[in-house]
Amino acid sequence: MEFVLPSLLVLLAGAFIVFSLLPKATPLLLTFLSIIVLLLTLKHHYDLFEGEYKFLTMIDSLKENAPMWLVTLVVVLVLGYLLATIGLIKFNKGSNIPEVAMPAMPATPNNRPANNRPANNRPANNRPANNRPPNSPAPQPATNDLERYVSKYV
Asked: 89: closest CA among 80, 102, 77?
């Protein structure tokens, strides 16, 4: 009975908070509250299981031998590189996957009309050297820098 009533009170308090206060809170406030609750639960968990964190982890036993493992790894990698560069270790540069024969691609048909215009039936670009359509009036002189640039480069 000593565990039922406090748990029931915590459940009722949580339900009150969830159904009455949280819908009125802003997302920023909810974000900060969730971060604070997360940090508090992490601290409580660490305080509760501090002994296991200090004495029963495998990483702590490996910390003493970490320099030896690191030096061994570096020596093995350097020896492997040196033996591979002088040719004592051969790597299979080929592949055991069989080569797949690709079928011959058919020639693409010529879908252009007989008058050699593009497929969307636009007329071919038959403009003269001054890049103006035939029988068009001469352009007016440019009045500002933008018009000069456009008339020169476009």
From this structure: 80
Tokens linked to 75: 């020596």
Amino acid at 107: A
| pLDDT tens digit sequence for 27-63 | 888 889 889 999 999 999 989 988 777 766 666 677 7
pLDDT tens figures, 65-113: 888 889 999 999 998 888 878 777 666 666 667 777 888 877 776 665 5
3-state secondary structure of 74: helix
The model's pTM: 0.31
Please, are residues 144 and 150 in contact by the beta-carbon 8 Å criterion? Answer: no
Helix (H/G/I), strand (E/B), else coil: 102: coil
The whole-angstrom separation of Cα 127 and Cα 1 is 98
Q: DSSP characters for 30-62? A: HHHHHHHHHHHHHHHHHHHTHHHHHHS-HHHHH
Handedness of CA 133, 139, 144, 149 (dihedral sign): positive
The one-letter amino acid at 19: F
Query: How distant is the alpha carbon of residue 137 from its chain centre?
Result: 55
DSSP state of 139: P
- Residue whose tokens read 């670009």: 125
